[in-house]
Amino acid sequence: MQETSTKRPGGMFGFTLVWLGQIVSVLASNMSGFALTIWMYERTQSATALGLMQVFFITPFLLISPFAGVMVDRHNRKLMMMVSDLGAGLATVLILIFQWLGILEIWHMYAASIIYGLGMAFQWPAYSAAISTMVPKEQYGRANGMMSLIEAGPAVFSPLLAGALLPFIGLTGILFIDVVTFIFAIAVLMMVFIPQPERTEEGAQSKGSILSEAAFGFKYIFARPSLLGLQLVFFMGNLFTGMLFTLLPPMILSRTGNDSLMFGSVQTAGAIAGVVGGLIMSAWGGFKRRVHGVLLGWIITGLGASVIGLAGGLPIWITGVAISAFISPLVNSSNQAIWQAKVAPDLQGRVFSARRLIAWFTQPIAPVIAGTLADYIVEPQMRAAGGLSQTFSGLVGTGPGSGMGLIIFLCGQVSILVGVIGYFIPAILNAESLLPDHDELPKAEAIPA
User: Fold this and answer.
1) By three-state DSSP, how is residue 399 classified?
2) Residues near 270 by beta carbon (within 8 Å), at least 6 away in sequence
3) What is the DSSP string of 308-352?
4) CA-CA to 56 of 20 to 30 Å: which in 21, 367, 385, 443?
5) Do the domains spanning 1-197 and 211-437 agree at the CATH topology level?
6) 16, 30, 208, 344 from 204: Cα distances, Å
7) Residue 285 belongs to what H/E stretch?
8) Is the Cβ–Cβ distance between 320 and 304 less than 8 Å?
9) Cα angle at 391 between 386 and 396, to 5 degrees?
């Protein structure tokens, strides 16, 4: 399917329209998530039941991601973007129907999570690859800064809106709003012109079976030390920040006597800082040498993370979380812009899916490591006389939560080290000059997209 640009918005204006449709849809989806979390916990009183929602989402997501990337490269980009929205929309429609009929059960939520995970596997590679064909490469930083607002912005307002609307329209009304916004987002996509990528020689040569094309994304990354180095920076950084954010809620709650208001205040401060950082990145676009946005950004992220673990209570927690959240759009947008400039658009679906899969390997690892260290080693040691308590009490305090605070502080220090080490590895520091931009690569003979 090859669409034409006749009378269809395109370029940065067309991207902005798509972005508006997505931010409205994500806001409504977050409202649904908030309301459904309350519904589920009221019926189960189980944190495990809630945790299984993530398991049923992430498992199909990880399994299908490499193949989703192949589909993004093989087929029309707009169609693949719609697939991700339709998957999420279908899951919400099913929940809405069951809720309206009064037969919604816990297992329905798990089934919907599977459908949602399958749809979302297409979203990130499809939208990331679409930016490369819609927006000039000089605007990649700004466009990715805007995309970061889709993650941060709704997180500020969705709990407030959902909490205010629930008493009046109930769960059914919240879900209905979500379905309407999915339709709106798809309608916007249909009216916008999204060019298909030009075919490169490498893209033509990589064609094969779906299995070989799925493996191609990993081969592509491992064959380029600069891209592999950047990915390892994120792998290591994500591992330790993942440990940090696993321990953040229990640390705050244990140090405040389960004060949910204080924990909510820290979350809100982080969300607001993320929005401000995203707005600045959208207007600025980042450093001319984007690798500085990645490496310096990880150093500042680690600094903020280290602050979180220190003794001092709410002001310290808010300061640390705000620093890390504020700089996050710079880190992610700069890295994304490098990959979008270096990887040919007709390869980005497969390569970006491989990137995401490698990065998300840390998700099941980080909580296990963090929880084990906190529960069985560091937290007991910090509560015992002498040992770690004697050495670090002046830094992270004493009592419940101090062990978790120490782990958080050390994770922040490692994150700083990750950024610093990157400056001493030429393949990473000089990635932008060592790798040619994709528009400098030879094109294949014209092939219908």
Assistant:
1) coil
2) 321, 322, 324, 325
3) HHSSS-HHHHHHHHHHHHHHHHHHHHHHHHHHHHHS-GGGHHHHH
4) 21
5) yes
6) 31, 40, 9, 11
7) none
8) yes
9) 110
- The two three-digit tokens of residue 307, written as one number: 């602050």
pTM, two decimals, is: 0.78
The residue ranges of DSSP E strands in 337-412, in sequence order, are none
Supply angle C-alpha 416, 420, 423, rounded to 5. 155
Closest CA relative to residue 312, chosen from 372, 265, 252: 252
Instruction: Give me the residue spans of the domains in the chain.
Output: 1-197, 211-437
Helices (H), 102-224: 106-134, 140-191, 201-205, 210-222
Chain-centroid distance of CA 289 in Å reads 23
Fold for the domain defined by 211-437: Growth Hormone; Chain: A; (1.20.1250)
Rounded Cα distance, 314 and 156, in Å: 19
Contact 48, 110 (CB under 8 A): no
> Which residues neighbour 34 within 8 Å (Cβ) at sequence distance 6 or greater?
158, 159, 162, 163
Instruction: Look up tokens 């101090």; give the residue.
Output: 402
Using the CB atoms, write b or e for 279-289: b if 16+ within 10 Å. bebbeebbeeb
- Cα dihedral across residues 98, 99, 105, 106: positive or negative: positive
pLDDT per residue of the chain (449 residues) written in tens, 0 to 9: 455 555 777 788 888 898 898 889 888 888 888 788 778 767 876 655 666 776 788 788 888 888 888 888 888 878 888 888 888 888 889 999 999 998 989 899 889 888 888 888 888 788 888 888 888 888 888 888 888 888 777 777 777 788 788 888 988 998 999 999 989 999 998 898 888 887 777 777 778 888 888 899 999 999 999 999 999 999 999 999 988 888 888 888 888 887 767 877 887 888 899 889 988 988 898 899 999 999 999 999 999 999 999 988 999 999 999 999 999 999 999 998 999 899 988 888 889 888 888 877 787 778 778 888 888 888 888 877 666 777 787 888 888 889 889 999 999 999 999 999 999 999 999 999 999 998 776 665 433 33
Residue owning tokens 């002046």: 394
Please tell me the distance from the alpha carbon of residue 154 to that of residue 158, in angstroms, as a whole number: 5
CATH number of 1-197: 1.20.1250.20
Q: How far apart are the first and last CA of the chain?
A: 7
**Within 13 A of 174's CA, how many CA atoms are on the CB side?**
29
Q: How far apart are CA 104 and CA 87, in angstroms?
A: 19
